[in-house]
Design goal:
This protein is mainly β. The chain is built from 1 helix and 4 strands. It has one helix at residues 89-99, and strands spanning 23-33, 45-55, 61-69, 76-85. A 4-stranded antiparallel beta sheet has the order 1-2-3-4, covered by helices on one side. β3 (61-69) and β4 (76-85) form a beta hairpin. The chain starts with 22 loop residues before the first strand and ends in an 8-residue tail after the last helix.
Length: 107
């Protein structure tokens, strides 16, 4: 499995997302509200980790994933935020920075 993590990323288990020829690139940490967008459910803030994954198994696809804990040890919630046709790492990172919540200060 070829996972490339940059920027001092956390290392959640991305095995379910990746094939041996895929690459995962850490983008940033952001804070998102839990619950759905329609106003139902909890709205506590939780940190999420953004990754751009270049998949190559059935042609090249670039996916932007947001990964967050679901509150139970060892379990993750994975959200597919955006899909790009081809290997478009830089474009996916730029899209994430423009369209998702700003990063939180971890210091």
């Amino acid at each position: 499995m070829n996972t490339q993590h940059t920027g001092g990323s956390p290392d959640p288990n991305l095995a379910l997302l990746l094939n041996p020829e895929d690459e995962a690139h850490f983008v940033t940490v952001c804070e998102t509200a839990t619950g759905d967008q329609a106003g139902v459910g909890s709205h506590a803030k939780q940190p999420s980790f953004l990754y751009v994954v270049v998949h190559r198994r059935y042609g090249a696809w670039t996916h932007l994933y947001r990964v967050a804990s679901d509150g139970r040890p060892g379990r993750l919630l994975v959200y597919l935020e955006m899909i790009f046709l081809g290997e478009r790492l830089a474009e996916a990172k730029d899209w994430a920075r423009r369209n998702l919540l700003p990063p939180i200060d971890l210091s």
